[in-house]
Design brief:
- Helix 2 packs across helix 5 (138-161) and helix 3 crosses helix 4 (90-103).
- By secondary structure, this protein is of the alpha/beta class.
- The chain has a 5-stranded mixed β-sheet, with helices on both faces.
- The protein has helices spanning 7-14, 59-72, 82-88, 90-103, 138-161, 167-170, 176-185, 196-209; strands spanning 20-26, 35-41, 74-80, 111-115, 127-130.
- It is globular, with a radius of gyration of 18 Å.
- The chain has one domain (6-202): Ribonuclease H-like superfamily/Ribonuclease H (Nucleotidyltransferase, domain 5, 2-Layer Sandwich), CATH 3.30.420.10.
- It starts with 6 loop residues before the first helix and ends with a helix.
- InterPro entries: RNase_HII, RNase_HII/HIII, RNase_HII/HIII_dom, RNaseH-like_sf, RNaseH_sf.
- Keywords: Cytoplasm, Endonuclease, Hydrolase, Manganese, Metal-binding, Nuclease.
- This is Ribonuclease HII.
- GO terms for molecular function: manganese ion binding; RNA binding; RNA-DNA hybrid ribonuclease activity.
């Protein structure tokens, strides 16, 4: 199994870039909670071992690596809430989160490496899209780890305010237990009303009350 490496960053540095940011988002698929993007600039001579796609790491390893990145790197995170997700749609909301994450870096990057196959239209710096970037590019892997850790922490906090949906374990994703809780407990202010399972329940409730 191949691991992410620093070749995308090295290519940009060789072309004259000084600060190369990896950018990734997490939380496109959940029915509840924000979509979160992180941007991370790794220093070539100081990269921790074990950076990988956040989904391939244990929670403990993810937390250790995220804490290291947040202590030693230029990094930024942006959360887009459910109101903006429902207004913009999840595709545009996730791209807005990426733009805000890049804008929040201490040093404006000369080049951004974006996970996926599209570059956000409003990104203010030169960029390239890297398909499956979190498994191929160390800076994107670092961004995926930070984004996941911080979004998961939000969902754990929201789970305490709205018990019964299992957000502390499912992070708002549409698991069978979460979908059943939606039917049993109803829709919270943190659910994405534009997502079909939530929208269908709201439509059903409206029909029942008419």
């Amino acid at each position: 199994m191949s691991l992410p490496d620093f070749s995308f960053e090295q290519a940009a540095l060789a072309r004259g870039a000084r600060h190369v940011a990896g950018v990734d988002e997490v939380g496109r698929g959940p029915l509840a909670g924000p979509v979160t993007a992180a941007a991370v600039v790794l220093e070539p001579g100081s990269i921790p071992d074990g950076l990988n796609d956040s989904k391939k790491l244990t929670p403990a390893r993810r937390e250790t690596l995220a804490e290291w990145v947040m202590a030693h790197c230029d990094w930024s995170v942006a959360h887009i809430g459910v109101e903006e997700i429902d207004r913009l749609n999840i595709y545009h909301a996730s791209h807005l989160a990426m733009c805000r994450a890049v804008a929040g870096l201490r040093n404006r990057p000369d080049h951004a490496l974006i996970d996926g196959n599209r570059i956000p239209r409003d990104l203010a710096v030169p960029a390239e899209a890297v398909v499956k970037g979190d498994a191929r590019c160390l800076s994107i892997a670092a961004a995926s780890i930070v984004a996941k850790l911080l979004r998961d922490r939000i969902m754990v906090d929201l789970a305490q305010q709205h018990p019964g949906y299992g957000w502390e374990v499912n992070a708002g994703y549409p698991t069978p237990a979460h979908k059943q809780a939606l039917l049993d407990l109803g829709v919270t202010p943190h659910h994405r009303r534009s997502f079909r399972p939530v929208h269908n329940i709201l439509c059903k409730d409206k029909t029942a009350s008419n």
